Amino acid sequence: MNTNNTWHDLLTKAGGTPPVPVNPIYAAIDPDPNRTWRYVSRKDTATLVRLALKRAYPRTKFGVRMTPGYSIDVRYDGSAAGAPRKSDVVSLLAPYEGGGFDGMIDMSYKMKSWLLPDGSVALGESAGTYGSGGSVPGFKYAPPSDAALLVTLGNDYIFVTDRGL
């Protein structure tokens, strides 16, 4: 397989245009199925987070910032009329976290996510910390579509604050 082609190129050559608009971040990733490791930068992950928030809550203004270290900070005014609950925003953004922390054994762990052609992200897999005596179970979810790519995201954590921008 020619690894210089993107999924967008391959879909176009296979029979016309892709079935959905392809997100540029997705289109830039090497589609080679033998590739076991794909990385999405923290900047691109922040872009995907903005896209997810805009799709889910089009009337709410969010501030999305990369912070020092490996985290992304999301802020919005939770007291505004029609604003989503913080727990809903946290749940929406869970697949966009590239890692977690188990305070029971003071250990961080990594997660991978499924990146879809439209730029949305779904939970992928993680070994968790059970194997190290921790309390976080591992998981491994099937790809949500044949076009999904398993990626490592450039951030570990997303912090959500609902007290303004």
Tell me what the structure shows:
With 165 residues, the protein is an alpha+beta fold. The protein has one domain (22-161). The chain has helices spanning 7-15, 24-27, 42-56, 86-93, and strands spanning 39-40, 62-67, 71-76, 99-102, 107-110, 112-115, 121-126, 139-140, 149-153, 157-161. A 5-stranded mixed sheet has the order 1-9-6-7-8. A 3-stranded mixed sheet has the order 2-3-10, with helices on one face. A two-stranded antiparallel ribbon has the order 4-5. The longest helix has 15 residues, at 42-56. The chain is globular and about 45 Å long. It starts with 6 loop residues before the first helix and ends with a strand. 27% of the residues are buried. Mean pLDDT is 82; it is low at 1-8.
Give a quick summary of the entry:
The chain is of the alpha+beta class and 165 residues long. It has one domain (22-161). The protein has helices at 7-15, 24-27, 42-56, 86-93; strands at residues 39-40, 62-67, 71-76, 99-102, 107-110, 112-115, 121-126, 139-140, 149-153, 157-161.
Number of domains: 1
- Tally the beta strands: 10
Note the run of SSEs as H and E.
HHEHEEHEEEEEEE
**Category from helices, strands and their pairing:** alpha+beta
Question: What would you call the shape?
Answer: globular
What fraction strand?
Answer: 25-35%
Instruction: Return Rg in Å.
Output: 17 Å
Please tally the helical runs, counting DSSP H or I stretches of 4 or more residues. 4
Mean of pLDDT:
82
**Major sheet size, sense and barrel closure:** 5 strands, mixed
Helix percent reads: 10-25%
Strand order of the largest sheet: 1-9-6-7-8
Could you list the spans in which at least 5 consecutive residues all have pLDDT below 50? 1-8
Rounded to the nearest angstrom, the distance between the terminal CA atoms is: 46 Å
